[in-house]
Amino acid sequence: MPRISAASVADHRAQQRAALVRAAHELLEEGDAARVTFGAVADRLGLARNSVYKYFGSRQELLEAVVVEAAPRWTAPIRTAMAAADTPEGRVAAFVTAQLALVRDGEHRVAQALAGDRDAAALRAGAEHAHRDILQPLVETLEELGDDAPRRTAGLLQGFVNAATKAIESGDDFAAVNERATQLAVAALAGVTGTAAGATGADEAATGTSGAAARE
Questions:
Q1: What is the model's pTM?
Q2: Are residues 82 and 187 in the same domain?
Q3: Which residues bind DNA (predicted)?
């Protein structure tokens, strides 16, 4: 591993710890959480296996650090996309598209790998916190529209995203799945909140958001 220059021992430790978390994240991106061992992480960085114990007391602790580090990368694009939309319908479409873009770009593999890991129960609290953060901007949009059960509605709208995720992972076309998922989510929003958006509004929101994703 290249020498890390740092202003202090504390900075050096922080950089080493971050490098170990990144290495574990890379292993998870390859799709098999079982491969995330102290030995594998150390090998990836050219360190001795016992060096990892200086930073993490257990494999579970290392994986928890991965969740903490990854969560903003899952939530920030969703919040940014929704903030750029001008209407509630546009925000819902952005909510769907931003998540599916993460799936398309492979970030979802980390969450999948963690979900299937033997330490999944220990990681559940961190994953649930990330899930709440993902849903929060959608909950706020629903509250703005007067939904009397915004968190329940948000969870159900997330079902469209989950189904679309499975379709994309099964090889279906990203653009087509994304457009249909956004149309369904926006139409469902209109039905629940009584907004004026009909099929045309849903199509415009879905097409506009999908086009933005395609240009990225």
A1: 0.70
A2: yes
A3: 37-56
